[in-house]
Amino acid sequence: MRRLRLGPVAALILALPLLSQPLRGQGSTASPHGANSPSAANASAEQKAATAGYVGSEACQACHSDLYKSWENSPHWKTSLNTKEEPSHQGCEACHGPGSAHIAGGGDVSKIFVFKGRSAKEIDARCMSCHAGGPQHMMALNSIHAQNNVSCIDCHSPHHAESREGLLVKSQPELCYSCHLAQKSQFSMPFHHRVPEGLIQCTDCHNPHGTEHAKQLRMSSTLDAVCFKCHADVQGPFVYEHAPVKVEGCSSCHMVHGSPNPHLLKVSNVNLLCLQCHTASSIGFGAPGTPSFHSQATFFQACTLCHVQIHGSNFSSFFFK
Q1: Which of 64, 83, 111 is the last residue of a domain?
Q2: Distance between the two ends of the chain, CA-based, in angstroms?
């Protein structure tokens, strides 16, 4: 049988596919980040946590007795009794993930989910794995708080809550005042909604977990229906509506948190408030100007002495009754 003789060029062409393959027993290509890079270490920790098993909350008690006791007295404790859910939604491991690798590693924090040092997005995603349902948290991941990197544990503390209601780190309104200093000063004005006195709370008007409305207001798209929860006498509907109430809302005339003026009005004199729209040159506003027989000489005679139903009327287009 005759052997086929190959030239040097043909032999090189046939050998190229073999040369391009890695040697047996060696890895393919090296990681571009290196085996000891932070990203590789984090990925390895996440993989170990993902492969870890669930051990139950009692296993955590041996080392974390103080945290376990505070958790046992919190509403989260009832998750350990929920046998309908998987172990991933029960006890300590519902928040921190499976703990077998953490215990086997002698308490290695890289093998379990620790909230400290995590981003607001990671923390919120962890909490929303249980709290995503219901109307209170539907907009939580897109709320103004989330957009400003305010995480759930900035307001809530599963282990060290000061207020049992909502597991808040502080009670209202002090918790809200820690960021909203302008509103705190408004509530110190002579006329204000009785938030400092405890009659109402910030969350009665705002949903801190987000709504589809501005300022995270609750209820209607008109942005004033939240006021009608208490002020039902001016809600209507009326045959003759006062346009600002429907177009701009209550805040067109009132300062909602507090004011130096009675009825939380924006200005001290009612006439000046009305004349912001009802002037002789009110063409651009679409509001009727003041008639010629209205004498501004009687400066302190309020418009509302005659126009008594200023929020709306069923009998008079001029809001006389």
Answers
A1: 111
A2: 120
29 inside domain = no
Distances (CA, A) of 311 to 224, 244, 250: 13, 9, 9
Cα–Cα nearest to 105, from 51, 159, 35: 51
DSSP β-ladder status, 312-313 and 258-259 = unpaired
Token pair for residue 249? Answer: 């809302």
Query: What are the tens digits of pLDDT across the range 291-320?
Result: 777 776 665 578 888 899 999 999 998 899
- Domain annotation covers residue 10: no
Half-sphere exposure of 321 (CA within 13 A, CB side): 1
Q: In the chain, which residues have pLDDT < 70?
A: 1-51, 220-224, 281-285, 296-300
Indicate the SS3 state at residue 169.
coil
**Residue 8: is the preceding peptide bond cis (ω within 30°)?**
no
What is d(CA 81, CA 32) in angstroms, rounded to the nearest whole number? Answer: 47
Dihedral (CA of 209, 210, 214, 220) sign: negative
Residue at a domain's end among 72, 90, 111: 111
Give residue-wise pLDDT tens across range 2-18. 444 545 544 444 444 44
**CB-facing half-sphere around the CA of 67: CA atoms within 13 A:** 13
User: Does residue 209 form part of some domain?
Assistant: no
Residue 270 forms part of a structural domain: yes
Q: How far apart are CA 138 and CA 143, in angstroms?
A: 9
Q: What is the tally of structural domains in the chain?
A: 2
Cβ(169)–Cβ(160) under 8 Å?
Answer: yes
What's the pLDDT at 267? 92
Helix (H) or strand (E) holding 192: strand 191-192
Domain of 105 in residue numbering reads as 50-111
pTM value is 0.74
